[in-house]
C-alpha cells in the first residue's frame, strides 16, 4: 500500500499531465539532452519528489490515534524550446496557466479533503541554450507545496 505522500505525488503528476497545454509530467528525471515534441515545439516536465517535514502533531484520544500534519515540497521543472521564440513563450505561458487552473480546480487532488496544494514559481530563465540544437530554453522551476495529515510521519 503506498504512503499518502506517494499517493499524492502520483496523483499530482497525473493531474498536471492531464491539464491542457501541459506536457506529460514524469517523476524524478533529469532534463534530457533532447526534449520530446509537444504542440509544435519541444518540451519536458518532471516532478521531483522533494522533501517533507512534520509541521505539527495532532493528538487523538491516544498517542496511536494522533495525526501528523505534513508539509511536502515537490519541485516541478518545466522546459520548452523552439526555433520561434514567440511560439515557445506562448506555449510556456499556456502551460503555467494550465498548471494553476488544474490545481485550483481540485486543490485536494481528489485524494482527501485534508490536502491543500499551492504552487509558487521559483525561477524562470530564457537565456539557456541547448548545446545539441542551438535553440534557447524557456525554463520554470515551481515549488508545489502540499499540506496534509497522515497517521505516519511520511
Protein topology:
Layout: H1 4-18, E1 25-27, E2 36-38, E3 41-58, E4 67-81, H2 85-105, E5 116-125, E6 137-150
Parallel strand pairs: 1-3
Antiparallel strand pairs: 2-3, 3-4, 4-6, 5-6
In the predicted model, the low-confidence regions spanning at least 5 consecutive residues are none
- Along the chain, the helix and strand elements come as HEEEEHEE
Distance between the termini: 13 Å
Major sheet details? 6 strands, mixed
Average per-residue pLDDT, rounded, comes to: 83
Count, helices: 2
Strand content: 35-45%
Number of strands: 6
* Coarse shape: elongated
Q: Quickly give the structural class.
A: alpha+beta
For the CA atoms, what is the radius of gyration? 17 Å
Overall helicity: 10-25%
Amino acid at each position: 500500500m503506498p504512503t499518502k505522500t506517494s499517493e499524492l505525488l502520483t496523483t499530482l503528476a497525473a493531474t498536471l499531465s492531464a491539464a491542457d497545454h501541459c506536457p506529460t509530467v514524469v517523476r524524478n528525471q533529469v532534463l534530457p539532452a533532447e526534449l520530446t515534441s509537444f504542440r509544435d515545439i519541444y518540451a519536458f516536465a518532471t516532478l521531483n519528489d522533494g522533501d517533507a517535514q512534520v509541521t505539527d502533531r495532532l493528538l487523538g484520544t491516544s498517542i496511536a490515534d494522533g495525526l501528523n500534519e505534513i508539509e511536502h515540497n515537490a519541485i516541478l521543472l518545466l522546459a520548452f524550446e523552439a526555433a520561434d521564440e514567440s511560439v515557445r513563450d506562448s506555449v510556456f505561458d499556456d502551460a503555467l496557466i494550465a498548471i494553476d487552473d488544474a490545481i485550483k480546480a481540485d486543490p485536494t487532488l481528489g485524494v482527501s479533503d485534508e490536502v491543500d496544494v499551492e504552487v509558487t514559481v521559483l525561477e524562470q530563465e530564457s537565456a539557456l541554450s541547448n548545446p545539441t540544437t542551438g535553440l534557447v530554453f524557456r525554463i520554470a522551476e515551481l515549488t508545489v507545496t502540499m499540506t496534509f495529515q497522515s497517521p505516519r510521519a511520511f
